[in-house]
């Protein structure tokens, strides 16, 4: 891994130097890679993204189904005061109101939201689209395939944003599982934080990098107001973090040369940018009062992990993880956030010792980096703190949401082994593709959970990377994570004769997984990650044991009335089905994703 990562970093550095010297594809046009160190930090104020109400209000104040039209537009966005405007793809109710990230959709629990997604994008992409990947195929057509996925949403697979349900502008070309651009989100799930983003096959990494992402909330005032947490637009904020590189003319930059160009001309195993962006601004600032604030933090990066902390000794108090509230608040001095992971935290600025507090990160890129390696602390954004305290009606209660079921291993009806593989080109340490269970995405479905049940998933990471695993539709809790001993021996057995492709033995029991776990280190799952989640960081050379729940956390009134106990309030077997995948977007796009079909 060390050699491969070092070589990859050198290639990126050489590309940057070539651009700075006016060489290479971009250099021929006289455009250089931006030196991020020349951008002054904390000069742009943290913006609030537009809010779209995902529900309607009828006479008498009764809430009814919300009807939204959200488009994908080719537009310009200003990331920094001193950087020229950047061409982006952005979500919005109109081209004039489209933003990066897109508008925050606020839904109400139990009130459906219908969104008609429209594609207004141009014939050609603004970033390198590597068509050697298993990607959307246009034939002789043009256009940019897109499909929106509501991450953390509990919805029928026809509205889940299946990677093969993509469509181009004007529906000139559609994917094999496309049925309609109108999606319905029942919002029959606990209150919490979600996000929507593009999910087109083989294009997720470039479409999100171009700007196709936004926040989504499910609110339940009756349950949440009594908690007394900070509320209102000023004190309860979404914070969407990601990293980007730019050229000196303001254009987004993504290296157009792959690490194995004779295999994949443009695909790189991970994308890392030198500029940290929060709510669409590079290293912004936010003026805050000396009181509590709630921040719903999303890591929307392609591959960068953030290990967040606050200067001056301030702490976070976690109240939720991914889409679900915790049972009790958990204080931390810092925490690790993987791509697509969400942390719902409260920060009390009363304890600030100075008039400025910096949100910062010291996670290596790629994560976890070399053993014993230490990353430099980098700024994310700054809080400018008022001088005097003020009355604060908010609080953080001793208990939060306690009605959710506790994990019960005895409920598991099946134990599955999910192995993560990385394949390299013969004679090199450079990756060519990544598979789950040694299978390509298009291989037949092997995971067929039964609706209303729970399963134990033993997730085996046989790579040197930390992979954030995301399961659509379901939630899960992490029971334990253990290190493998003699991992090379175990990996060789699992891969069998398949050194560079699909197949191999892939039999954890026959390869003696339990023997390789005996005496291995047990990794403590952080307290703030012990609730129900939809993303978990699977460490290198470990086995993570997840209890995966294929039934709602709460039974809706509609489900109870139908007598369908333990089931979803829609036909979960209809449509193209669901997926699970690594949420490092560059891995997901190179087949670290598998289909999943729910059965009854």
From TrEMBL:
Keyword Translocase among record annotations: no
Membrane topology annotation: Peripheral membrane protein
Localization per Swiss-Prot or TrEMBL: Endoplasmic reticulum membrane
Signal peptide: 1-22
Domain Plastocyanin-like: 140-222, 425-597
Descriptive protein name: Multicopper oxidase
Origin species: Triticum aestivum (Wheat)
Pfam families the UniProt entry points to: Cu-oxidase_2 (PF07731), Cu-oxidase_3 (PF07732)
Cofactor(s) needed for function: Cu cation
